[in-house]
Amino acid sequence: TAANLDAIGVLINLLSLYNLVQVLPPNIATLEASNIKNLTCPDNVFCSADLEHLFTQCSVEYQLRPVITDHFPIITTINLQPELIETNPKCNFRDTD
User: Fold this and answer.
1) Angle, vertex CA 77, rays to CA 82 and CA 62, nearest 5
2) Dihedral sign, CA of 38, 71, 48, 77?
C-alpha cells in the first residue's frame, strides 16, 4: 500500500542518515503468528556501522520463547571489553627527599 511504502521510505532514510546497519541476519524468523502458525520476520536489530564489529552474536533462540507469546527472543552479545592502553609511569615528586 502507499502508506507502507511511505513508512519504509522513512525507515530507509533514517538508516542512511544515522549510518545504521542490520545486525540480525536477514530472513531469520522472529515471530510465529498465533492463529495460523506462519513464521515471519518483522523484528530487526540495528546498530551504528561504527559499533558493528563489537557484536559477537545476534541470533534468535527459538527454544527460549516464553509461554503465551508470539515473538521469539533475540539474543545479542556485545563485546564491551575496553582496549588496554599502555601508560608511562609518572614521577611522583612528593615522594622525593
Assistant:
1) 175
2) negative
